[in-house]
Amino acid sequence: MSAREGFQNSLVELQKDILRMGSLVEEAIARAVEALKKQDMALANSVIESDRVIDDLELEIEDKCMKLIATQQPMAKDLRRISAAFKMVTDLEKMGDHASDIAKATRRIGNQPLIKPLIDIPRMAELSQKMVKDSLDAYVNENPELAYAVAQDDDMVDHLHSQVFRELLTYMMEDPRTINQATYLLFISHYLERIADHATNIGERVIYLVTGERKELND
């Protein structure tokens, strides 16, 4: 195997590692919101504990990126590919942290009766998971159009977050006894909004990888 073939194989392995990390993040988001919906404390605890796996994977991928840069001295698009991977794992790690934050807020709410049916928050979670998947598909297929579509979904998540904020604020104003739980639900909505922002950041990395141009998709 030539040195070039070995380098290309290493890039393929790097891509597989990022997809594995993205899959773990998607799963963590889904499980965290499921724990909230079912008020399942055991599930919430498992989401918090499994965040260590995502953290460890981030460090592992970063080490691989550094080794490739140090030993292969990549140029042009190969350098952008490694640089994008390096930053994408930071976004994925933060998404994992926010999934854990959702599980922690769920534990704070505990088994109290929910002050309202959960409709918009699960919808935000579904959109956020889709954005993570689409951003990684855009990365694998080097598809900037899909990266721009991720940013459009981010606008929908932002809209839902504003809607949740207004609704919970009304609950708190009408009945101060709801303030404690409504505050945790607001935190959860904010964590999902941040997850969507990080997925959009990955979209920006994809555009940079493919075109060499830096775009700001979060406005």
Descriptive tags:
219 residues; mainly alpha; 6 helices; 86% helix; 0% strand
Structural write-up:
This protein has 219 residues and is an all-alpha fold. Helix content is 86%, strand content 0%. It has six helices and no strands. The chain has helices at 3-38, 41-72, 76-109, 120-141, 144-174, 179-211. α4 (120-141) packs antiparallel against α5 (144-174) and α4 (120-141) runs parallel beside α6. The longest helix has 36 residues, at 3-38. It is elongated. The N and C termini lie far apart (46 Å). The model has no long low-confidence stretch (mean pLDDT 94).
Radius of gyration: 19 Å
**What is the average per-residue confidence, as pLDDT, rounded to a whole number?**
94
Largest sheet: none
Distance between the termini: 46 Å
Residue share in helices?
over 70%
Percent strand: under 5%
The SSE string, one letter per element, is HHHHHH
Say how many strands there are.
0
**What would you call the quaternary organization?**
single chain
Gross morphology? elongated
Low-confidence stretches: none
| Number of helices, counting only DSSP H or I runs of 4 residues or more | 6
Question: Structural class of the helix and strand makeup?
Answer: mainly alpha
